[in-house]
Structures are given as C-alpha cells and as structure tokens.
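Dear colleague,

As promised, here are the two records you asked about, laid out in our usual form so they can be pasted straight into your sheet.

NAME FIELD: protein one
SEQUENCE, THEN STRUCTURE:
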Amino acid sequence: MPFITGIISLNNCIEGSTKRRFEESLLSFMSDSPWPVERIDNDKYILVCADSPDMWEGPKTISGSDYDAIATGVQWKRISSFNSALEYLTAQFQSENPKIRNYFDYFSCAIIDKRKNRCILATDPLGIAQVVYYVDDSVLVFSSHQSFIRRYLGDNITICWDAVFEYLLIQHLIGNKTLMEGVKLLPPGYILELQGSDWNMAPYAKLGNIRINTQITVEEACQLLWDHLDEKFRHYESLTKKNFIGLLSGGWDTRLITSFLARTGRLRETFTTEQSVRLGDMYVVEEKIARDVANFIGVNNRFVRLRTTRKQGERFYKLPRIVDYSTTYHEWSLSLAEALPQGEYILTDGFLGDVLIRGTHIPDDFQRCVEEGNKEKASELTFAEYVSGVSHGSASDVYYPDAESWKRILDSQFISDSTEHLKQAIINEFQDIQCENFVTAYQLKNRQRRCISWLPTAIFGSAGAVILPFCDLKFVEIALAIPNEMKQNQLLYKCLLERTKSGLSEIPSTNTKDIEKLKPYLTRAYIGDISALRLFSYIFPKKYLKRLYRIFMRTRVAALLYSLLYKRLGMASRIFENFLIADEIIRNPPTTFMNLLTPEIRDAIYARNMGKLAQYASYLRHILVLDKFFSNKF
C-alpha cells in the first residue's frame, strides 16, 4: 500500500527497544505493499516511504546534506525551476511563509531540516493524503494510516470512546481526533513543526472566505469548471507515458471523468461493480448503466463480480486497514481492487464530484441556512440528522442506525454522553469554516474523511497512481462559488456532460430522479446485490446446510419467505448476511466492547444465540471491524 511513516527521537537517539518495536510494526504493516520501500535512517530518526513513482516528478525520497525528506501523493502539473516535486515542497516548507501552488491532487510529506535541527510534517490543502501522529516523552511517530500507529502502540493503546461512538453513528470522525487517545490527525493544509522540545502547528493553505457568485449563469459556471478539468487532463497526459483505466459507476462523477479521458485516446478500459444503490424497494443495476455509457463513449467496460469466499469473517480482518475512512462501503471495493491490472496503468476516480458539482445532501432547510448565513441552525440540523439517521436514505436501517437504536446494543449512558460530545464537535467544525457556502464546505471536509472508492482501491490494489481530477484547491474554490441551486437540479452536471460529448447526459444515472427514465435499469430480484453473491457461496457447501437450516427455523422465517415470494432477493440475501455476521460474533466475540454491550447482547453472545444477534447485525458489523482494529488483529 502507498504510505509514508517515520519515527523521530526527541532526545539524542532512538532507544533500542523503541526502534525494534517500530521495525516490527513496519514489517507487518508493509507485508502486502506492491511498491518498493525506500528508507532513510540513522540513530536519531527513521523515514520510510512506499508509493508508486507515477504522476510525480523526481523521487519521493531525498537524502541530502541539508535535509532528508519523503513524500506520497499525486502531481497533476509540472513544476518549473525545480528538479523534482519533493524538492519544491521542501523548499516551500522550509521557508518562513510557504506558498504551495496548485500543482498537486494530494500529497503529504515529512522533512528533516538538518541546518535548523527541526522536523516538518505537512498534508495537502484538502487533507486527502492524511498524516496522523503520536508523541510521547521520547519520540514522535507519524504515518499515513492510523492502522500503523495502532500496530506501533501494541498494548499501550487508550481507546477514544467518544470517537468510537461518532464513528459507529456516522462512519467517520469530525475534527482532528482519531480512534486512539494521544493520536492526532494533522488538519488539512497545516504544517506541524518540531524543533527540540518546541512545537508549532499552523495553516499554510486554507479555504478562505469564498463568496457565492449569484450573478453567474449555468453556462459560465460550466465553462469555468470545464476549462480547469480540460487543463488538468492535458497535464495528466504529459506527466506519464502509461495509459489510463477508470472506475465507471452508475453515477455522473465517473461518467464525466471517463468522457474526458476518452478524448485523450489513452483510456484503456473502465471497471464497474455493483454498489447496491437502492431506490425505495428497487435496485439500480449499475452494470447496465455503465455498459450503456461505455458503449456511447466508445470505451471498453469490464464488470467485476463481487468476490465470494468460503472463509468466514475474512473481510473483518481486512477492513481495519482502512479504518481511517469507513467500514461500510468498502466490501465491494475489495473485489474491485483485486481485479485491476497490476501497476500497468494510471487509475482515475471521481471522488468529491458529488459534493462539489452535484450538490448532494443539501435539502431546502440547509439551503436556507446558507442564504441566511445561519451556521448555528446548520449545526443543529446536521446534529439532528446524524442522531436520527434519516440523512442516509433508505438503507439507514441496514448501515446507519440512529442513536436511539444504538441503545439496544450499547450502554445508554455511554451513548448519551458521546452524543453531547458529537454535538459540540459539529458546532466547532462549522465555526471553523469561513466560506459563504459553509454547508458544502462542511460536507467537503467530512466526505474526504470517508473516501468511498479510491482510497481502498489504492491501498489494496496495485494499479499505478490514483488521480483525482476534482481534488485540487482551485477546482474546489471554483465549485464553492457556484450557487447550490445550479447543482441540486443537476443543470450544472448536464451542461458539463453535454459539453464533453453531446447526448451523454440523456443516459439515466443513479442520480436520476425520474423513475420512468430509470425503469430499464431497475430490478427487484437483484442478483448483483453485495450480499446475494455471498448467499450462494455459502449455500452450496454441504457442511453449512444443517447449520443454516437451524438458523432459519429459529428466527425471521416470515421475513425470509416474504422476501422470496416477492422476489426481493436483495433483502433476502441481506438477511442471510446478518447470520454470517452473527456467526463471526459468536466465534470471535468483540472483547474490547464487551463491557459496553447491553446485557441482552452479551447474553446472546454467551448463549450463542445466532437468531438474536442476527437481528442486530447491521450494528454489530461495525463493532466487529473496530474490535479487530483495537485488538491488533488485522
């Protein structure tokens, strides 16, 4: 997996036991990295980098007489006057007033300034390539991933329980906390400087007071975005000789990127998998949408079937590797990552397009907050949606239970206390935002903390670099100045698609609100459902039949029969998935959560009551992943 990590002594040298612990953590952490590992080490510090060399000028590791430096990330524009991108970043961050120009999709770096005897950590202006760090009396340890810090801490971990509940409820963390006490996330666009025992953290780039341009027309807004994307894709081409591959879902974000890439003539293939997008009691078959889009644009499309496995619980040992983001969405992306070509191509993804161009998750009451400049009300509405679970749509009963429902699983006092902390975190987050379109800016900050496809694909796959065309500060500033109304009614996206290829917006998408247009792409008997494939993979082995018979006879028989009678196999398979989660809970109880579980759930685990546990599987699946993370079993 691509990453940077390091350990820096606060004294004269790293102690032997501390160094051994770091090396052991590193060895287990990088065991599946497809990239060559480069390192700089001496008695005082160790810097380690493993990343694709693609889409980056020069090396990602530099060891010199004046400084040592490592970096990870993707560059989209060439830098004049410097021999390498890392040399440019080092020169800027060593200066008194660093000004990073718009050359990167994302990056993070660590610099040891030998002249001033100081260490500098930095992340990109949007915080996409994150940096987490831990400090004790003797060392600073940093990494791109919480999971590495978790390995390093071993038995010395202290769980941040407020963060745990926040994560369970909304699937990401607000602010700069992590799941572990004492481990912090470097804020987007910040640098952390350590010189001797003196610490300093300051922003070098931040979203300013961006005003909404109420006078701009749809055509003018489209032109601004289109020109910037057109420039980016031309520069992408110049930075690599490799061809591109794309992720093509049923939505509009990847469709727009695919159409831009097709114009270059270097798009080799697109990949699609089912993400189980629900529309009421129907499913949108993304395979059909992606195939029609690919045919219209004139590119190849490969549909990736979700990987089935007969090894129970395997995913619960993989998902903790990406716990920085979410335990929910990534099961399908694990199969996708395995299907991608190994290092031969540059991968593209439409991350953040839904927030910046499509204006998702901005209902009328939030829009009124923007118009009135009422951050306090926006904070209240956001908190209410998080606690009630309604913001997550029709699938909320499966993946996003509300706070009150969590009291069936976890101690009610713990939930009440954690809910108050969540409320204050939301208020602080909104108050920290300066731009006029603060609702979109809030979603932007929190969306980037739960990357849906590109991050796990980059971690578990070994395609080349992952480019993110919507993820640079200039594009974000342009988008935030465009009125939300142009995005919500989809006029802006339609204009962009038509500008790229006439007729492209006429093919329905998962974002289409017109049910009549979507009818050819809807189904009830949805065999492509994420869990349906597991259903069949588990039904066929004979050794499971007797167990399954007992399970189905014990509980939920009526719901299962109802599902099958009405051909709602998506629902039926999800019920089956619940039993698989219950089985994992019984075989490997979540020890770190046992004291917080309600007596009813604890008794069900001790009694091996699969039927009872299956009823709460949508809650327990997240607890399982976090327990593996805290128990260091991943």
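NAME FIELD: protein two
SEQUENCE, THEN STRUCTURE:
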Amino acid sequence: MANGVNTVEGFVNSPPAWMTVSNCTGGNTNGSDNLSSTYYTNFTDYLAQITKHFRDSWGVNFRTLSMFNEPTQGWWTCSNNQEGNHVSAANQETLIADLKSSFSAAGITDTGISSPDEYSSSASKSVLSGYSPAALGSLSQINTHTYNNSGDASLYGFASTMGYRMWTSELAVGDNTSPVPDPTISMNGSLNLAAGIHADLTALKSNGWVYWQAIENSDTTNSYGLIQTPFSSSSQTYTIMKQYYGMEQYSKFIRPGFTIIDASDSNTTAAWNPDTGRVVVVMSNPGSSARSTSLDLSGFSTLPSSASVYQTTSTANFVQLSDAPVSNKALSVTLPAESITTYVIDGTATTAPTNLLSNAGFENSTLSPWTADPSSSTVATTTSNTFSGAQAALITPTSGAWSGLSQTITAPTTGRYTFIAHATSTIANGAQLGVNVAGVQAAKVPVFGGVGYNRYVMTVDATAGQAIKVWGYAPAGGGTLTVDDSSLSVRANYLSNPGFETGALGPWAAEWHPTLAGVENNNPLGGQYDAYLHPTSTSDVGLYQTITAPSTGTYTFRAFVASNIGSGVSLGADVAGTQATSQTVTGDGGYRQYQLTFTATAGQTIKCWIYSSAQSGWVTVDQASLG
C-alpha cells in the first residue's frame, strides 16, 4: 500500500481444516465438497471478521472477496500439496447468501463479493449461468481464470449484459516444449504469456489481469515463475526469468486509466489514455522470421513525430531502442522473430465527436435537461469533488430509497452509440451507470467504490428515432455517487439489424442452403438473439448483408462469432463482387471478435458474410458492425 497499491482483493483457497469434512485443507478424500454444511455460516462469519480486521486494524479494504478457487474442478483432494476446496454450484449460491448476511452483520459495506474463479472462462460462464437471480444480484465482480481457452469472449458477453466488472484473477503460463530450454533465455514462455494477456484484454475485456505464481521455486522443472529462487535455501538469491521482461512490456505502460482500443492485427494489443494522450501498442511476433507491418494511426487528429520503443528478445531484456518515426499518420515497424515490442506514443489527440448530451459536465449549475430519479431531493449539482470544471452531479440515496439521474435523447441516426462518463462513489456495491434503448436496458457497468474517479465506457446499437436514455443509479442505503464529464456519440454502422434483436434475419440473407440459417435465442453474446448457421455433412450455408459504400475510404467489418467446427468456417467482405478480405473462425465453441479492414469506392457494393462448409456443427454470430 505504501508503494501506491490502491486495489486489494481477497480470496480463499480452503476453509480451516476443522471446518472441513476430511479435516484437511487440500480437499476431500474423493474430491467432493469439503466444507461441512454444519459450518457454512461459521465460515462466512470467519471471513467477515477477517475482512473487518484488515479494514479496522490495518486500513486495508478488500474491494471484493472471493470464497472460491476453481471450485467445481475434481482435483481438490487431501493428497494435494496445495490448499483447495470443491464447492458445487448450488452450494456456492448458499455460501454467497451467507457471506452477504455475514458482511451485513459485521457492518461491512465497502467490500463486495466476487465469484466464481473457475479454471476457465467457459467454466465460469457455465457456473454463473446456473446461479439464481438472487445469487447473481449479490455479486459485484466476476472473477475467472483463463486456462485452456484464453480469447473466448462468451463470458464477456454474459458479464456486459449483466453489468459486472470482469477480472482475469489467475493465469500462469510457461514453456510448453520438452525438454524446457533455459527460461532466462528462451522466449517461449514470454510469447505464451503475451498471447494470454492479449486474448484476455481484447476478447474477454478484463478490467484487471492477475498473474499467478510470480515467484517460483528454482528447485523445480517448471517455468511458470517470473522470478525463481531456491525455497530450500536461506541464501536470498534469485534469478529473473525471461517472462519477467515479457510481462514488463505490458504492465509497465498499460496502467489504470487506459482503455483497450481496436487493433486489426491478431498479435497486437493497443491501449489509449484519453486524459494523458498516451497510446501504448504492444506487438508480439511468435514466428521464426522477422515480420514487417504498419500501424494505422489515422484515427488520431494529433500525433507526435516519433514513438518510444522497448523490446524483449532471446538476447535482449526490455531494452529501449531508438525512437521510431511517425510519418503520414502511420508507424512502420519490423518485428524480430520471437519478440515482444512496445511502442509508446505520447501527445496524441482525437477530434472529439459531437456530444449528443446537453449540460454534459453540469457546468450550467443546474441539472436540466438531466432528470432526477425518482426524487429531485436526492440529486443536485455540487462544486465539491469534481472531475474537471466547477460542477458535477451528486447523487445521495437515503437509507430507504434509491436515487438516480438520467437524460434521454432521440437517436439521430442508426449506428453504434458510445456513452462515456467519469464517476466516483463511496458505495462499495450497487452503484451503476447504464444505457437504455427504446425502453430496454442495453448496457450497464458497476461504478467502483472508494477508488476515486474512473472513466466508464458503454456501447450500444440504436436505430434512428429510438429513445436513448443514459443514467446513473445509486442503491438505497446511504453513500454517494458523483458523475461528471459525460458524453454520448455515434459511429455509423452501415449494417442493419447488427445484433439480430428484431428476432428475424432481414435484411441479412442466407445462401447456399438457406433453410440451415436463422435467428435464435440460445447463444447470444449480448441482448436476446443471435444468428445461427447449422451446416450438415452434405450442405454448406452462409449468411450475408450487402450495402452500397456511401463514400470512398477504409472500412472495417467486425463481428463476434462462435463455432464448434474445427475448420472450414470463415467470415469476410466482398467489394464489387470480388473478395477483399477473409478470416478463419476458431472452432473452440467460444465467441471471439473478428475484425477485417478493406477499402471501397463510393457506390461500390460491399457484401459482409459468414460461411461454413459442409460439415456437422454450428456457428453463431452476434454484434456485427461495418464502419
């Protein structure tokens, strides 16, 4: 904490041995639930008292507490050399309710509950999908490990729909070759680490990313640690592994306050801090030969003449290289084989889009045209604790009634709308910002309690003429929510019915074997519906939408696609009847976002498509856009 840590999370591997069935913190003898049902409330009371002690005696507030660690996996047995505890999904619900009661009895209002910390994002989604509304409503954060399926966006879809903060609470990677080469030299582990970070920040859209086993016993053949030291020795010596420098390429520069932004390269993670104007681009090259590419920076109105460059290779450990020139709003780079390179671009700015909200920073010293909900007596402007300027909006719920703030506009055009607001809250769990479209909640995010101002971003699709309501909400029980500097802007989406929320395909069309495509509500990433392709072993099927290019320039087709078909599924774009670009879809069953960029001339036809060859399986599509 003295070194600047401002977020502390608590988690538990196992109950104390005396509360367990096996009297062992490694797990039950047969891998089943080990916490005795006799001690459920004793366990949650114990956790509440520990949380209270950290807060009252040491000034350490857990933002959230997770009671579980890979709870439904079958490997927690008493023979383990690590503490663990199997907890069925049904018993997780019981414990969540008990912990909520224990927190209340102990007077803990500034620590939320996180769950389920499953082994993979798909396992976490499976468990959470079975939770009751009461259990889901008791959570303030989703924690997941991302072993086996980093890059699956399905849990992101679930979390964003429910309005939860998302954390990758554990991932550890190493060198998966045999025999393991020298981990102080080999880039294998670092490149595996880069792939995991990239997938979790861009597809899962994790708000926090935590590495497991940063320090490792050197008396082992593993290669997970960022630092190794002999646990059996008192020599106090240690060795820095190559993965330490691989991690540094990301963690040194992508800091709190940054927003992950789109990058078309599958090995590129890009982040931007709009308050400081710094852009960070981390590019990995896992290949065995050098790779040259160009970074398109045309989205920025102001750019410096050069970027700082940092690089890790088998022979270099996070070394700073000569600055790279920025020319014609592009950065041309050559990435050495098996390398991770970070480009830091300071002094950027963008042309601010038209803000569709009025009195967005409350500088009129009044709320209008914002509306206080449900009562004006608990919402007012304030000159205290502003993000910028002289005024902000202060929402102060009472012990018996919630309070909120909203502004409604009519969508001027069809497209993707982005609501941005800066907010701070003294409420640990329950304060939210959100967007409704046509009277239906389309997006919401939790506001972090007790950590100062943060920038919150939500995107929704809306059709011209629909009502868009942006809002802030504070639950009953006291505390405050302060909102400042908000904006609502639109980016054209030339595709209609992009999320299939009409419940029908049109104006999308099916081809090849049209009866094998349609709309369903079985696997939406967000909202209520998704489109499906159900090819058979003898019949292929496709889905497409065609528009006329409104202007000459660069276009980007984005879509979330999931499939259980190993190969033969792709998406792409045709211009004037000729394929301009395509990309293969990963067949692991999880949603991933695909992004394809191409050029077109005004008046040309653009056909965006998803296709599956003839084979048994399924494909689902959601949240497509062309801009």
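A couple of things worth noting about protein two: The first strand starts at residue 8 and ends at 11. Residues 40-58 form the longest helix (19 residues).

Best,
R.
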